[in-house]
Amino acid sequence: MTIWWRGASAFLAATAAALAVACSTPPRSPEQERADAATTERINAALDANPIYYFRDVEVEVDHGVALLRGYVWTTDALYHARQIARGVPGVTGVKNEMELERQGNRGGGDGTGSN
Hints:
Blueprint: H1 3-22, H2 30-49, E1 58-63, E2 66-73, H3 76-87, E3 94-101
Parallel strand pairs: 2-3
Antiparallel strand pairs: 1-2
């Protein structure tokens, strides 16, 4: 077996193992779905209530208590505060960040300070 083939085989085996682990998330019970939906609403309300930063372009999903934040913010401080706000919401067990920093401020009418 060539070195290239061994490397490719190892890569494919590692990829298959990672996919198996990623797909092993247990299905949500109706109670868990309701709890995640309520947690999502609480996170959205907490983000919307923030008087300093504009979080209207941040989308929130919660799965088994883990909040996924996606979307755009205008400053690194806003990115940090969005994560902190989500972490402080009852029912949140973890936060995954997929937010992006929008440097040109052309994604939704905010300048990052909460004023237009």
